[in-house]
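hiii, so i know i said id send this last week but things got crazy w the move. better late than never?? heres the sequnce for the chain we talked about at the cafe, plus the structure i predicted for it. fair warning i was half asleep when i ran it
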Amino acid sequence: MTWSVRQTRRFARQYKKLHDNTAFDVDSAVEQVRQNPEIGERKKGDLATLYVYKFHSSGQLYLLGYTLDEVIRLVYLEAVGPHENFYRDLKR
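okay and structure toks below
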């Protein structure tokens, strides 16, 4: 059984600003996370609830941050963007 996916406001704003080819790669990454949520790396410390899935788009490393609600099998998409300042912006 696959998981359901929901977007946060932050993710929706970041996604809207992406180029079309990058948005297509993000859609592919979201589908992979939906099929297998454990594919991402779990963070430690302040971001202990966050999973991060790394993928490449247009020759650049992008990160997809998400959290899980295992009771109702729901993936919350928290943020997406290039590696630069990704974690700093998430802590805000």
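btw Helices lie at 9-16, 20-35, 86-90. thought thatd interest u
miss u guys!!
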